[in-house]
Design goal:
Strand content: under 5%
Number of strands: 0
Number of domains: 1
CATH topology: Na+/H+ antiporter like fold
Structural class: mainly alpha
Shape: globular
Radius of gyration: 21 Å
CATH class: Mainly Alpha
Helix content: over 70%
Distance between the termini: 10 Å
Number of helices: 14
Length: about 350
């Protein structure tokens, strides 16, 4: 019951800050969210990681978090690849079967042709679309969105699990495996090592290690409280930026491909691994943190990679927008199933 009370307390600021960001994003110049994003990337999010790590419980088992993230990434990629392969073959078979029946070109499409179009679509036959489909099923928004959700529903004690999951899992997965897949499926190839350098200079990774190093350092109560206030302020600013970025997304095409990718990322993967985590000895609130992180919608990093490698930007944009709204519907499900 307490988790559902926290859920209500989460929805009020979540909807408020994101909604305010949507309104501001429609009115303010595009340079404003760009500046806020740079501030959060270089200063805000690294500072919040350092602040909240001071309160987190970092037992030895916390290293299971990045391992779980890589399991989720691998499962999502595998299921997405299986869908692409099977649906493409089946769609071609259905369309060919429909054509073989001798249906006239002026007659309405047969149910086989309609099913074939829905399953695979001409879009998923193209490599750039397949790359975007895979990335959306793999990489979650475990930083800008996963952090506030975890802090609101579970609290700062187990925030370290979310940080380990994000920095050593999602971030490395996006700019490591994600970049390799984008190079395989994309039609553009930036300079060698361009996004790898982005990974190495990512301040969230450096602040992660800095936060671990500063944990034993005692600070006066007033300073500690001030840092907590700043940390929560950064979380609110992150939600505001999320709303601003969502206001700039204009494409809602390819809903059925986006729905399948999101079903894999936000439903099948968290449910499957959530049932398996007790086998690894992960129960209680740590398990809930990992499930919440796995259930996050696709990360904005997928759009950055899609634009850099000329993947299917429209499909990526659709999954980002649809997934952000779907999160509100699925959070009660995860609390009902897995909250201790």
């Amino acid at each position: 019951m307490m988790e559902f009370e926290n859920l209500f307390k989460l929805y009020v600021p979540l909807v408020s800050w994101v909604g305010l960001g949507l309104l501001l994003g429609c009115q303010l110049p595009k340079s404003v969210p760009l500046s806020i994003g740079k501030f959060l990337f270089w200063v805000g999010v690294p500072l919040s990681i350092t602040v909240f790590l001071r309160q987190a419980d970092l037992s030895a088992s916390v290293w299971v978090a990045p391992f779980t993230c890589w399991l989720a990434i691998s499962l999502g990629a595998g299921l997405a690849a299986l869908w692409i392969r099977s649906s493409t073959k089946l769609s071609r078979l259905m369309v060919a079967t429909g054509s073989a029946t001798g249906s006239r070109s002026e007659s309405p499409p047969s149910w086989r042709q309609r099913l074939g179009e829905w399953l695979g679509s001409e879009r998923l036959h193209r490599l750039p679309s397949q790359g975007s489909f895979l990335l959306a099923a793999m990489i979650g928004n475990t930083g800008y969105l996963g952090y506030p959700v975890t802090l609101a529903l579970v609290g700062p004690e187990f925030f370290g699990w979310a940080v380990f999951y994000d920095t050593l899992g999602s971030t490395l997965g996006a700019y490591g495996l994600g970049v390799m897949l984008a190079a395989r499926f994309g039609s553009s190839h930036p300079g060698a090592g361009q996004l790898w350098r982005a990974l190495l200079i990512n301040p969230a990774l450096w602040s992660f290690w800095l936060g671990l190093a500063l944990r034993p350092v005692a600070l006066p109560v007033s300073i500690e409280q001030g840092l907590k206030t700043v940390g929560w302020g950064i979380i609110a600013l992150s939600l505001l930026l999320l709303g601003m970025r969502l206001s700039q997304l204009t494409s809602w095409q390819n809903l059925h491909q986006a729905t399948v990718s999101l079903a894999i990322k936000m439903l099948i993967v968290p449910l499957t691994l959530g049932l398996l985590l007790p086998l690894l000895g992960i129960t209680g609130l740590p398990k809930l943190v990992l499930i919440l992180q796995m259930a996050m919608p696709p990360a904005f990093a997928t759009l950055v990679i899609a634009e850099a490698y000329n993947l299917d930007r429209e499909l990526t944009v659709t999954t980002l927008a649809l997934g952000s709204g779907l999160l509100l519907l699925l959070l009660p499900l995860w609390l009902w199933l897995f909250a201790p």
